[in-house]
Structure formats: structure tokens, C-alpha cells
Amino acid sequence: MQAALDMVEGGPIDFLTGDYLAELTMLILWKSRLKDPRAGYARTFLTQMEQVLGTCMDRGIKVVSNAGGLNPSGLANDIRQLAARLGLNPNVAYISGDDIAPEIPSLLEAG
After folding, report:
1. How far apart are the first and last CA of the chain?
2. The Acyclic terpene utilisation N-terminal domain covers which part of the protein (predicted)?
3. How far apart are CA 59 and CA 8, in angstroms?
4. Alpha-carbon Rg of the chain, whole angstroms?
């Protein structure tokens, strides 16, 4: 959790990136989403953003991550809420569309 803070404060950097889609992580995200449909993203990313978002905005550092995992819209929403609590208004975007889980029954039926 310290790495993001170290990179942002130690800079200079233009982008802060993170990769959260390791196989084990995806399994953990899937299991958490089974319990709560609002889950499915890397919650540790929120903690990291709480530590660095203000500094990133002050220094013009862009943040790019796949921490949204199985619920990118949920993470984007929670990032917006976090930013509002911090008095910040960042541009937050996410990409969706690669979750084929709802299609699995029809794909299995089709063979």
C-alpha cells in the first residue's frame, strides 16, 4: 500500500498505474461479488487513492488502473464518492463490457 504514495511523493511521474488482474486476485474478486453484487473490485485501491488523490491532482498525475476488476462501475462510483469527501472533483472514467458471465448459460446451451 505504501508503493503508490512513495511513487507520487518521490516522483517526478506523469502517470500512476496499477495492475490488479492476477488470477488469484480475480478469484478473490469473484468470490466477493458472489456475496455482494456491489463488490468485485480491489478495495485496497480506494485506500491508496485516499492517500494520493489530492497530490495526484495537484501535480497533474494521471491514474490508470484495472482495479475495477469485475465491477469497474462500482469502483468508479466509490472513487467519485471518496473524492467528494476529500473535497476533490477528478475526472473518473471506466471501461466495461468484457464480463460474459451473464451469457454463460446461453453459451452452454448452444454448445
Report:
1. 44
2. 2-109
3. 9
4. 16
Q: Which helix (H) or strand (E) holds 62?
A: strand 62-65
90: cis peptide before it, omega within 30°?
Answer: no
77 touches 64 (CB < 8 A): no
Q: Which three cell numbers stand for residue 65?
A: 488502473
**Distance between CA atoms of 29 and 51, rounded to whole angstroms?**
22
- H helices of 1-111, in order, are 2-10, 23-35, 43-59, 72-85, 104-110
Alpha carbons within 13 angstroms on the beta-carbon side of residue 4 total 24
Greatest CA separation for the chain: 54
Chain Cα centroid distance, residue 99: 15
